[in-house]
Amino acid sequence: MDKPLTPNIPLDLESEETDPISVHSAIETPLRPDAFALSDAEKIERITFYFREIMHTLGLDLTDDSLQGTPHRVAKMYVNEVFRGLNPENKPHAKLFENRYAYNQMLVERDITIYSYCEHHFVPIIGKAHVAYMPEKNVVGLSKLNRIVQYFAKRPQVQERLTMQIADELKQVLHTQNVAVYIEADHLCVMSRGVNDVGSSTITTEFSGLFQEDKYRQEFLQYIRK
Ligand SMILES: Nc1nc2c(ncn2[C@@H]2O[C@H](COP(=O)(O)OP(=O)(O)OP(=O)(O)O)[C@@H](O)[C@H]2O)c(=O)[nH]1
Ligand SMILES: [Zn+2]
């Protein structure tokens, strides 16, 4: 095998030892304090290098014209697309409007498409999120609900934490505790490898504020029922 190259940007091994639990709350994605010390361009350069090493180690011929660009393609996809939600700079700005019409019933945004990645295997999680809130003083542009869901999905995730991160953000943005999040998803790590079960799917929920009351919970569940 060729002698491995070294990347232009060396790894800072000391910061690898940081204990993420000591600096983060339980529902935050465990990021190192120096997670954004490198620019996106530098991250792409480094991931290209290491993904090339992975392919090389697997015995793939990187001079093949179809494989040649793959390390860079994967690096761009990770940083700019599928994991862009790791960077708080990419968090959507949710513009609020005053609830002048005093709408005080439930608003449900259902069937929001989710494409996330399992943090244990780095393969896709594909599903739908249904979110709801009961407005108090403010209402939010509908598309912002979809954007918030998609922002947190674009991270390596476990479904439980994804559900809680979305609920938490909705509470903060909407200034209300009355939020519900329901996610139903297929995990390709369960379907396409390991236990190879294509028939099962995973449901997670977070009901807060008024949604803890059976009446509102049932109403919400009825709206999202197919
Ligand atoms: N709780 C939770 N577990 C998940 C999620 N996505 C994947 N997993 C599980 O994470 C576990 C990782 O377990 P390990 O035993 O370390 O991994 P593994 O040897 O590849 O396990 P198998 O998938 O059973 O082959 C697996 O049981 C996955 O099904 C998720 O969103 N939430
Ligand atoms: Zn997995």
What features would you highlight for this structure?
five-stranded mixed beta sheet, alpha+beta, 226 residues, zinc ion binding, GTP Cyclohydrolase I, domain 2, two-stranded antiparallel sheet, binds guanosine-5'-triphosphate, 2 domains, GTP binding, binds zinc ion, GTP Cyclohydrolase I, Chain A, domain 1, 7 strands
Overview of the molecule:
It is a single chain. The chain is an alpha+beta fold. The protein folds into two domains: 14-82, GTP Cyclohydrolase I, Chain A, domain 1; 96-224, 2-Layer Sandwich (GTP Cyclohydrolase I, domain 2), CATH 3.30.1130.10. The protein is 35% helix and 20% strand. The protein has seven helices and seven strands; from the N terminus they run H-H-H-E-E-E-E-H-E-H-E-H-E-H. The protein has helices at residues 20-23, 40-57, 70-82, 142-153, 159-174, 188-191, 214-224, and strands at 96-98, 107-118, 124-133, 138-140, 156-157, 179-187, 202-207. It has a five-stranded mixed beta sheet with strand order 5-2-3-6-7. Strands 1-4 form a two-stranded antiparallel sheet. Helix 2 packs across helix 3. The site of zinc ion has 5 residues, from loops. Guanosine-5'-triphosphate binds next to helix 5 and helix 6. It is an enzyme of class 3 (hydrolase).
